[in-house]
Specification:
GO terms for molecular function: nucleotidyltransferase activity. This protein has 113 residues and is α+β, with helices and mostly antiparallel strands. It has a single domain, classed as Beta Polymerase, domain 2, CATH 3.30.460.10. Helices cover 49% and strands 22% of the residues.
Length: 113
């Protein structure tokens, strides 16, 4: 990979991290259109405040919907790398709660631990 591509990717990621709230709000908007009862969480290194610009942004979607449907709709709406989307049902949410810090994302400006 050339230096120019690495610099371009670093600039892109920095902009995403600088505007993370807007990106997360867009993800919540797409998810809530599909399933108004869905829950969306931020987890991993970003939720723990231990991330680098090279880190993925881990997002957990808890829904009864088919994961493929959810992922396809997010991709159609421009949600891509560095976002790493995990789609699970409520049963699997408990596994994430045991191993990760989860920050619930309810919408624009509505982030809670």
């Amino acid at each position: 990979m050339s230096i120019d591509l690495l610099v371009e990717e670093a600039i892109k990621r920095r902009k995403i991290f600088e505007n993370l709230g807007l990106h997360l709000a867009r993800i919540v908007e797409v998810i809530k259109r599909l399933d108004p009862e869905a829950e969306v969480y931020l987890f991993g290194s970003v939720a723990e405040g231990k991330y680098l610009l090279s880190s993925d942004i881990d997002v957990l979607v808890v829904t009864v919907l088919n994961p493929g449907l959810v992922l396809a709709e997010l991709w159609r709406n421009g949600v891509e790398e560095p976002f790493e989307i995990h789609v699970v049902d409520h049963h699997h949410l408990e596994l994430y709660k045991k191993s990760s810090r989860l920050i619930r994302i309810d919408g624009p400006g509505q982030i809670s631990s």
